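Hi P.,

Sorry for the delay on this. The queue was packed all week, but I finally got your sequence through. Input first:
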Amino acid sequence: MKAIITLLKFLLLSDYPSGSSINYHDGLLYVIGDDASKLLVLDSNYNEINTVSFFDHQEKRIPKAKKADLETAVILDVNGQESLLALGSAATKERERGVLLPLPFADNQPQHIVYTSFIKRLHQIPEMNIEGAAIAGDHLILSNRGNENHPVNHLIVTATDFWKRQEDAPITVSKLINPFPVAGFAGVSELCYVEQEDVLLVILSSEATGNAYDDGTIGDSYIGWVKDVSQKLNGKDISLDNIVNLSDIDPAFKGEKIEGICLAAVKDKDWYLHLVSDNDQGASKLFHIKLLMEN
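Then the structure:
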């Protein structure tokens, strides 16, 4: 199986820092930056609709030592209420926390959660750096990003309400194997589940860093995928079926660390997706792509 990817448009968000997650729901895009104090809400044409304050910081970028490092988010049902759950990377104690925002956001206030007890159970992972999440049926799939010193990516499968029952929520951990050649080590930056095809889309990116805390020189970003993923969430190694280097698709992707991806629509065999990148310089970039899977 191969993918034909077309870049439809892109936009630089010079005033919104460190794009790390993007979700689509009811015609709106929810963008998070890992050191931004606010959630950015856009329409499908990338026009700003609103912002929602997550943290009480006045500066554009929350200092690195203080940020919750919200690296991923999903939209899920919480007691019958559609909600946005944003998760910190858990790379430090300060980052073992997240934000839950019931939707529609206009009627609700964000709630802060801490999941230290859950993280303590993931002792088989040498260094925590949660950067991806996706909902697949009753499962929440998290991805833990490796680095040059720990060059292994992991998928963590748990319950969608894991933060409510951290001591006994089910946990299955698998190594995510990339059998395809890349320049350096490519860590997982985000996940996206396409329910219609039972495919897990995986964003990978290369960055010259040997730990989960420090930034490094940005290399290329890739879209990979796992077919029939619901049949593979059993703790065994999971291998990517293929990958595409986004820099080969369009020059606009060069030097961009893609950190977020979401599905907006499926029309016939075409998947319409939005991506967000972080250039580590205080800006973000949005991309709208069309993806066609071919056998």
